[in-house]
Amino acid sequence: MTSNSIWTWEEQMKFLEALAICGFDDTLGIWRYLVDVTGKNQEEVKFHFEKVMVEIKNIEASLIHLLKNEEISGGHNNNRDDDEQR
């Protein structure tokens, strides 16, 4: 099954919120709920679910590098202890 559907940020957030509410149970009810919430069809939702599950498994296996606060802020650390040591 493939889908080249583009998901907006809003659709993605609705999808993730629905998963947080319903959990990751692979049942018919979750698919109907995700279709209703996102406005996507069942094929699009299932394909997106599979992609999200792969991402979650990779994160759990530490295969995806999550940015630290220093990397996000460009290396600037606003910690007072660091300022006092300078």
| Largest beta-sheet details | none
CATH architecture of the domain at 9-61: Orthogonal Bundle
Number of strands: 0
Query: How would you spell out the order of helices and strands?
Result: HHHHH
CATH fold assignment of the domain at 9-61? Arc Repressor Mutant, subunit A
The coarse silhouette is: globular
Secondary structure tally, helices:
5
Summarize the amount of helix as a percent range.
55-70%
**C-alpha Rg (nearest Å):** 18 Å
In terms of structural class, how would the helical and strand content be classed?
mainly alpha
Question: Which spans of ≥5 residues are poorly predicted at pLDDT below 50?
Answer: none
Q: What is the rounded distance between the termini? A: 57 Å
CATH class of the domain at 9-61: Mainly Alpha
Report the average pLDDT across residues.
Answer: 77
Organism: Solanum lycopersicum (Tomato)
InterPro entries: Homeodomain-like_sf
Protein name: Myb-like domain-containing protein
Describe this structure in words.
The chain has 86 residues and is mainly α. It has a domain at 9-61: Arc Repressor Mutant, subunit A (Orthogonal Bundle), CATH 1.10.10. It is built from 5 helices and no strands. It has helices at 9-22, 28-38, 42-60, 69-72, 80-85. Helix 1 (9-22) packs antiparallel against helix 2. The radius of gyration is 18 Å and the shape is globular. The model has no long low-confidence stretch (mean pLDDT 77). This is Myb-like domain-containing protein. It comes from Solanum lycopersicum (Tomato).
